[in-house]
Specification:
Blueprint lengths: L5 E5 L13 H19 L3 E12 L7 E13 L2 E5 L19 E4 L4 H7 L7 E8 L2 E10 L6 E5 L2 E13 L6 E9 L5 E15 L2 E15 L4 E13 L25 H4 L2 E2 L5 E6 L3 E2 L8 E6 L3 E3 L2 E3 L4 E12 L5 E13 L2 E4 L2 E6 L10 E2 L2 E3 L13 E2 L7 E6 L3 E3 L4 E6 L5
Length: about 425
């Protein structure tokens, strides 16, 4: 189930700031730069809910096809972008590399671009005429960062390279706020035809202050075959972050044992250790519907039959907590959904156990036809129902995950879906 991935990363540019020539237009961008620098200086550590929606357009097709939606908690801490699954209380930068590899992902839109273009080392701006953002008139200023001074990094599969980039900002001449940033990669030493990003900014209250923060980010990458990957990211629910903050955005999240759901050593938690090789018959409690559910959303299942094995007794109804790790749709050669589920915590009778397991199969009591339900997997056919058996392709090699493909026009994993999971060895 390998899938291509495009990643765009941004660090601080080392290109030195050059004072603009004296004119009213260039004086404006200098004042805007000073205002933005003050914004950065006062900006506290903060966090938001990040919603990522990815689409793809194949050559010779006009329509963008929706691929997936991802929810993350994102924080700007010490001038660095950090990420966590929703409900976690710790952040780290590397989580973005663990996201489903079915489209483009950017790192920099939340806060990195502000530091790069308005920090101590920033490019020169040149007045380039008028601009407009959502009905607001502004002044446009262009910039360019050469390859030798750039930290604009593009990752394609397992290849990584730095590119030059150029673009413009649109400044509100009255408020001296940057309303939009538009940038384009240049001299890309990878099989990527183009890569661009557009970010819209607005004033947002964080703590006791009012700050200019990104609201909307659109990243577009096109490969040499003409396939376009588009990612639209929005930031909501922003608030000040402290080390004591409990991250929640109004959703009943189940907290993970660590930021990535990875097990915490037993001696640090007092949790029960489940031996390998035990089969758990689980019933899904949280319905999962493509187009409504998102990667990162918490899920719960219940033990359908009691477990008595290796000195451990777990009653029927014990709760297993986890999250969606992938929920994507593909269109060729036929419409197919790729789903990855992770369960990491088992609770019962006031006890808690680390749940390290992988999906080995659904519990199918009868075979049904396309357009009906297959062991709780609901699909709908395009057009009249056909006498065709629904296939379910489980990737049993995936450690501690449930990864499978299922064909159909729509995907709805119903409440009560039976799944068989097998516990794995406790390996780091």
């Amino acid at each position: 189930m390998a899938r291509a991935c495009l990643l765009l990363f941004l660090g601080l540019s080392a290109f030195a700031w050059q004072e603009p020539q004296t004119s009213s237009e260039l004086a404006l961008v200098q004042r805007a730069r000073e205002r933005m620098a003050a914004n950065i200086e006062r900006l506290p550590n903060y966090t938001c809910l990040e919603t990522i929606e990815r689409s793809v357009r194949v050559p010779d097709k006009d329509k963008l096809l929706f691929r997936d939606r991802i929810h993350l908690d994102v924080a700007f801490i010490g001038a660095n972008e950090m990420f966590a699954w929703p409900g976690s209380s710790q952040f780290e930068a590397g989580l973005i590399r663990e996201l489903p590899q079915g489209g483009a992902i950017g790192n920099g839109g939340f806060g990195g671009w502000i530091g790069s273009l308005f920090g101590p080392s920033a490019p020169a701006f040149s007045y380039a005429g008028a601009c407009m953002v959502e009905g607001r008139h502004g002044s446009r200023y262009s910039f360019r960062v050469p390859l030798l001074s750039s930290t604009h990094t593009i990752i394609l599969d397992d290849r990584e390279a730095t590119s030059a980039y150029s673009g413009y900002i649109c400044v509100d001449p009255d408020a001296l706020d940057v309303m939009m940033l538009d940038e384009h990669a240049e001299e890309i030493p990878l099989p990527v035809a183009s890569a661009s990003e557009a970010i819209r900014y607005a004033r947002t209250t964080v703590g006791s202050g009012d700050f200019l923060l990104p609201q909307y980010d659109e990243l577009t990458m096109t490969d040499l075959k003409g396939t376009e990957n588009r990612t639209v990211t929005s930031f909501t629910g922003c608030r000040q972050y402290t080390s004591q903050s409990s991250i929640s955005f109004g959703t009943d999240h189940t907290a993970a044992p660590s930021p990535l759901g990875k097990p915490v050593p037993q001696e640090e938690t007092g949790e029960i250790e489940l031996p390998a090789g035990i089969s758990f018959d689980l019933k899904l409690e949280t319905p999962i519907k493509f187009g409504e559910s998102a990667v990162g959303d918490p899920i719960t299942a219940r033990l359908n039959r009691p477990i008595v094995a290796a000195g451990i007794s777990v009653p029927k109804g014990a709760a297993v907590s986890g999250r969606i790790r992938a929920l994507e749709q593909y269109y060729e050669p036929r419409k197919t959904f790729v789903v990855s589920l992770e369960f990491f915590s088992l609770t019962f009778e006031g006890k808690r156990a680390l749940f390290r397991a992988r999906l080995i199969g659904p519990r199918l009591e009868e075979r049904t036809h396309l357009g009906e339900t297959l062991g709780g997997f609901a699909t709908e056919a395009a057009g009249p129902a056909r006498s065709e058996i629904v296939g379910l392709d489980i990737d049993t090699s995936a450690p501690r995950f449930g990864v499978f493909r299922i064909p159909g026009e729509r995907l709805n994993l119903e409440r009560g879906l039976h799944m068989i999971w097998e516990t794995q060895d406790a390996k780091p």
